[in-house]
Design goal:
It is a single chain. The chain is α+β, with helices and mostly antiparallel strands. It has a two-stranded antiparallel sheet. A hairpin with a 4-residue loop joins strand 1 and strand 2. The chain is elongated, with a radius of gyration of 14 Å.
Length: 72
């Protein structure tokens, strides 16, 4: 089974009570960026593609069906 938060009819409104987050042990606020992700974000800031204020609040999410992390 694939659970896609993007198609959830109560996404945003009911994330705090989502059973998927509990089962996967993913914090509601997202995960801290790892060093490689942080360096990539810093490079975007340096190139002017994203402002430092927004970059400071980025988190990562784990997409278990793909086995990858996504920054956002």
């Amino acid at each position: 089974m694939i659970v896609d938060c993007g198609t959830c009819p109560v996404s945003g409104a009911a994330c705090a009570d989502c059973a998927v987050r509990v089962l996967l042990d993913v914090p509601l606020g997202g995960l801290r960026l790892d060093p490689v992700e942080r360096r990539a974000v810093d490079a975007f800031v340096g190139a002017g593609l994203i402002d430092a204020e927004r970059a400071a609040h980025l988190t990562a999410e784990v997409h278990p069906w793909e086995g990858v992390r996504v920054a956002g």
